[in-house]
Write a structure and sequence with these properties.
Layout (H helix, E strand, L loop, with lengths): L2 E4 L8 E4 L11 E5 L5 E5 L6 E3 L4 H11 L2 E6 L2 E4 L5 E7 L4 E6 L5 E9 L6 E11 L5 E9 L9 H6 L1 H4 L3 E4 L7 E4 L14 E9 L7 E2 L2 H5 L9 H5 L2 H6 L11 E9 L4 E12 L4 H7 L3 H18 L5 E2 L3 H18 L1 E5 L2 E5 L26 E2 H7 L3 H4 L6 H8 L10 E8 L5 E2 L1 H8 L1 H10 L1 E7 L4 E2 L6 H11 L4 H5 L2 E3 L5 E3 L2 H4 E4 L2 E4 L3 E3 L15 E3 H14 L8 E2 L3 E2 L15 E2 H21 L2 E5 H15 L11 H20 L5 E5 H20 L11 E9 L2 E7 L5 H10 L3 H13 L3 E2 L4 E2 L28 E2 H13 L3 H11 L6 H4 L7 E4 L13 E4 L4 H14 L4 E4 L2 E4 L15 E6 L3 E7 L12 E3 L5 H5 L5 E6 L1
Parallel strand pairs: 26-34, 48-50
Antiparallel strand pairs: 1-8, 2-3, 3-4, 4-5, 6-7, 6-12, 8-9, 9-10, 10-11, 11-18, 12-17, 13-14, 14-15, 15-18, 16-17, 19-47, 20-21, 22-23, 23-24, 23-25, 27-32, 28-31, 29-30, 33-35, 35-38, 36-37, 38-39, 40-41, 42-43, 43-44, 45-46, 47-48, 49-50
Helix pairs in contact: 9-10, 9-28, 12-15, 13-14, 18-19, 18-20, 19-22, 19-23, 20-21, 23-24, 23-25, 25-26, 25-28
Length: 967
């Protein structure tokens, strides 16, 4: 489905992007566009430091794209006009992997279309563009056309150079080969001010051809096109000279910021169309670019590559294909799946290993603060943040069972013995049998596809990460979701998963003890210094240099002990001892104020309950590192020493003893190269964790507000009284996240309904929009809490509709069996059901946030900002899986694993044909036949599968159609 936006440049401004996928054999490129000018506002390869068209944040892009973006000048009867400037009938067509613009000119009998797509399956990263001009008049039309970019960035010029020293950088720039029709733009040497001066082997290039396969002449000197008009407002050179004369004129090749314009003379009969094909990309000496440039001179080649690009995305998104009564919902599912793996990676099976391809950190014109990276190699992987990738891979096993325990292993391997984890997730590495360690794409580049794959097959895959910027409170809390997704498809393999042996990531920064964290400010304690960086070896090793390993079960026990020890003085929130808050990092001041997260404490309770069951189910002994064993014993004593923990009082002694125990544990972890181990009986551990769960459950119950809603955060005023800290608990605004976690802990449907009503009555519900705000708006007087208080209410993280958190809430309504509430709320709040005129962009795509009715600008209410790569995609993947197949599509029984489909389908997704079809486990499909058009929620229908299902076969990839009657 193509989404069409009419009169696009008269609509509210938005920013978007092409997916940047080039296929397994291709080199990716990035491309951002806006609904102004000819769309594309910046593009390049790898990252912001490898642009072809300069990266500009959205605010600047909206202003500049009309002059600095793609331009098309027509000369008709001696008069020069510009396409898309004074045109009518403008349309923007948003495909899943292409962008198309259309218009009808007012100054000439011309209809025009421009289309963009990223070049797939090629040895270079490039943007393909086609310009099609149609004669809408009654006579023969003779045109001169100049089409291209007024500024193209030579390879070797980075983002900082463009922003800070463009004038000086011109001294390095040169354009070569322009007379061949394929100019190459580069700098002669590296620009770094260092003793080592490196030659530059890469280059930007561009060329155009027409339908006859003829390569067009090119202008690279902007003065030839615009004369002395440095604003690029009007092509004075083109207006003054005929095209042949202009092409033959002198052009400078050095010491200028170049352009790229191709020129064509077109003769069109009435109704005839002609197309100019353009490719702009980055090449490298010896990369095979020359061969590609020889091939890419025909319309057939461009048409084939466009078809590849479109088919590729359809194939990649096939695991979520569905056919309901609402085609927009179906397409939205596909686009959301696409965006989910753009942030988390698409799992693929290669050479006997599982890799995640196509991912990148979520940076774009609106997320201008993030530094994204797309590796310039086949089998391209990108960078990402721990929290984002962990969440975006949550449903991998449900969509692709072959992933198995890989995600669980990768992420829990990165859990450190101090309870934290690195921030930056890097591409997977493969260590070959000969000891080489490279990415899969580097093997292919060095050895070719066949030999590279053979070396990968014989190698060992290793996760890789970097410390980054700090330790966030919430990162650990998403791991149980991965475990549950594995068990959703492979329920019989729980013991195998829990006994999986994993390494420990060595802390690259150490948590400082309290005496080094605390300082006095205004008579109160503050903590501003949290970490000391200790870079070095990335993995914990023993004295013999062997990796130190633990089972998943053992790591979970150790991690939960450290989180329990980090509880605050009320015993209801986990302290932000790493210096960073949770996902809501706009509360960046909260860690200094002894802030703690109640939501992470709620997740700790869920972990404790899960571990208690696992320990009792499998029994036996659990071997723990000595420091963690001693921590467990000291925490056991700390809890036993509490005289009464059911009253709403501060637990200073517990706080002090648990922190001392935690600091002692970490001191040993940080200083000892090898640990002693202690064996524990699983039942004794289970009893201890059960006691902790009871303690934590009672402390959390004391936190619930009079309105029935749990707090998300706590903050404290802390003073020293004769050497003993005193804690005064301070009120905090409501946040939606606590109700998300709370809904999952509620033990009855009645309690969940009560919570739903409480949230609906609170300020978290936006009655005008029928949506849920991320929080009560913060006031500027609360600036000490963090930058969120400086944001206008209803904007960004201050009281907006934060789609990720709202979708989390929707998911918990569905999980909790509140099916009617879920169905009604989804119809009101989910993106595909919104009014595009209010949303302000395509309702096939998510936004990070929608402006809430708290914002003083009423015209903005309900408008979406910050495109697509939002955590909301992960939540919708879970929602879709449960809607289509139920929470546990496979059940472990005495007779083995059996299929257990329990869909949740609202009536508005069922049409008169009364069927819904959905892809299942990547290669299979489920076809439901409904008896009538009504809501089908678990408990109000019966289901009959028409034929036997081979559960093992479909989970192992066999293509099967499952037909079920629901009545």
């Amino acid at each position: 489905m193509i989404d069409i936006i009419k009169d696009y440049d008269s609509q509210p401004a938005f920013a978007d992007f092409l997916p940047g996928i080039a296929g397994e054999n291709g080199i990716p490129a990035w491309c951002f566009f806006v609904n102004r000018g000819q769309g594309v506002a910046s593009f390049g390869t790898q990252d912001k430091d490898h642009p072809i068209m300069e990266f500009r944040p959205a605010h600047t892009a909206w202003q500049d794209v009309q002059t600095k973006g793609f331009r098309t000048f027509l000369k008709y009867h001696g008069h020069v006009s510009e396409l898309f400037v004074n045109a009518r009938d403008k349309q923007m067509l948003l495909g899943a992997n292409s962008l198309t613009l259309q218009c009808r000119e007012t100054d000439a009998p011309v209809r025009a279309q421009v289309q963009y797509f990223i070049l797939p399956n090629a040895c270079v990263g490039a943007l393909a563009r086609t310009l099609t001009i149609e004669n809408t008049g009654n006579g023969v039309l003779d045109l001169e056309v100049l089409d291209g970019l007024p500024a193209i960035v030579p390879h070797g010029i980075g983002d900082w150079h463009l922003k800070c020293m463009t004038q000086t950088a011109r001294a390095w720039m040169e354009t070569v080969g322009g007379e061949t029709g394929v100019p190459r733009y580069r700098v002669r040497a590296s620009l770094e001010d260092s003793a080592r001066v490196e030659p530059i082997t890469g280059f930007a290039f561009g060329f155009s051809c027409v339908e006859e396969g003829k390569r067009l002449p090119v202008l690279w000197d902007p003065e030839a096109v615009f004369g002395q008009d440095t604003s690029f407002a009007h092509p004075h050179g083109f207006a003054r000279m005929d095209l042949p004369e202009l092409i033959s004129a002198h052009q400078r090749c050095q010491n200028l910021f170049p352009c790229f314009f191709s020129g064509a003379r077109l003769r069109l009969n009435p109704g005839e169309k002609k197309t100019v094909y353009t490719l702009l990309g980055h090449g490298k000496t010896g990369s095979g670019c020359g061969k590609l440039l020889e091939e890419a001179v025909s319309p057939e080649w461009f048409a084939r590559k466009l078809a590849e690009a479109e088919t590729m995305v359809d194939t990649l998104c096939a695991p979520i294909a569905c056919d309901t009564a609402d085609p927009r919902f179906d397409e939205y599912c596909k686009r959301t799946y696409l965006d989910n793996f753009l942030r988390g990676g698409k799992p693929v099976r290669l050479a006997g290993h599982t890799f995640h391809l196509y991912s990148r950190k979520h940076g774009d014109l609106e997320r201008d603060y993030n530094y994204f990276s797309l590796t310039q190699e086949p089998l391209s992987q990108g960078n990402g943040n721990f929290r984002d990738v962990w969440q975006n891979r949550r449903c991998d096993v449900s969509f692709a069972p072959f992933v198995g325990g890989k995600n669980v292993a990768d992420f829990y391997s990165l859990i450190q013995p101090d309870g934290y984890n690195p921030l930056v997730i890097k591409p997977d590495l493969v260590q070959s049998a000969s000891g080489e360690t490279m990415t899969p794409g580097q093997y292919v580049l060095r050895y070719g596809r066949q030999e590279g794959m053979a070396r990968i097959a014989q190698g060992t895959v290793k996760a890789d990460a970097d410390f980054g910027e700090g330790y966030w409170t919430d990162h650990w809390s998403y791991g149980l979701d991965l475990i549950e997704d594995f068990l959703r498809i492979w329920p019989e393999r729980e013991q195998e998963l829990m006994q999986m042996e994993l390494p420990w990531y060595r802390p690259q920064a150490q948590i400082l003890p309290r005496e080094k964290r605390y300082s006095v400010s205004g008579g109160e304690l503050r903590q501003y210094h949290f970490l000391e960086e200790t870079p070095g070896e990335k993995w914990c090793r023993d004295g013999a240099e062997n990796l130190v390993k633990a089972t998943l079960l053992e790591k979970l026990v150790c991690m939960c002990a450290m989180k329990f020890a980090a509880l605050d003085a009320w015993g209801c929130g986990i302290e932000m001892e790493g210096g960073r808050p949770g996902w809501y990092d706009a509360l960046n001041g909260l860690p200094a104020l002894f802030g703690s997260s109640v939501t992470e404490a709620m997740e700790l309770l869920r972990h404790l309950r899960f571990l208690k069951v696992s320990l009792r189910r499998y029994g036996g002994k659990v071997s723990l590192p000595g420091p963690h064993y001693m921590l467990l014993m000291r925490l056991k004593q700390s809890v036993e020493d509490i005289p009464e923990y059911t009253g709403n009082t501060v637990l200073v002694d517990f706080w002090n003893s648990s922190k001392s125990a935690l600091e002692h544990c970490r001191e040993e972890v940080y200083t000892q190269g090898a640990w002693d181990y202690a064996d524990c009986q699983a039942e004794q551990l289970a009893e201890m964790l059960d006691t902790w769960a009871n303690f934590l459950g009672q402390r959390l119950a004391l936190c619930r507000g009079e309105n029935g809603v749990m707090p998300t955060y706590c903050r404290y005023r802390v003073k020293m009284d004769q050497g003993t800290p005193s804690f005064e608990k301070c009120d905090m605004p409501l946040f939606l996240e606590s109700s998300v976690r709370d809904m999952r802990l509620c033990e009855s449907e009645q309690k969940r309904e009560k919570l739903f009503e409480a949230v609906h009555r609170s300020e978290l519900f936006d009655g005008k929009l029928g949506m849920y705000r991320v929080n009560q708006a913060l006031d500027i007087s609360e600036l000490e809490l963090g930058r969120a208080a400086a944001f206008t209410p209803g904007w960004l993280e201050n009281g907006s509709i934060w789609l990720h958190m709202e979708y989390k809430y929707l998911l918990e309504l569905l999980r909790g069996g509140l099916y009617e509430q879920f169905s009604e709320t989804m119809r009101q709040a989910a993106i595909p059901f919104l009014d595009p005129a209010v949303y302000g962009r395509s309702t096939l795509e998510n936004s990070s946030f929608l402006v809430s009715s708290l914002n003083p600008e009423e015209a903005l209410h309900g408008r979406g900002y910050v495109a697509r790569l939002s955590g909301s995609t992960a939540e919708f993947m879970s929602i879709w899986q449960i809607m289509m197949f139920g929470q546990k599509p496979f059940l472990r029984t005495e007779n083995g694993v059996q299929i257990n489909l329990q869909p949740c389908i609202p009536a508005y997704l069922i049409d008169e044909g009364r069927t819904i079809q959905a892809a299942f486990l990547e290669n299979s499909t489920v076809l439901y036949h409904f008896a009538e058009c009504r809501d089908y929620f678990p408990g109000n229908y019966s289901i009959r599968i028409r034929s036997m299902v081979d559960v093992d076969a479909i989970r192992q990839g066999a293509a099967t159609e499952i037909v079920a009657d629901i009545f």
